[in-house]
Amino acid sequence: LKEYLRLIRHPPFWKYAIPLSCVFGGFFAFVTNGPLLFINDIGIRTEHYGWYFGGLILSYVGGSLVASRLAELVDPEVLVLVAVIFPGVGLLPIWIFGATGLWLAGGIVLGMSFHMIGLGLLFAVGPIRLLDESQVVSAGIASAFLGTCQLGAASLAGIAVGALYNHSAGALILTISVFSIGSLIGFFSLRNS
Question: Of 23, 28, 44, whose CA–CA distance to 106 is shortest?
Answer without folding.
Answer: 44
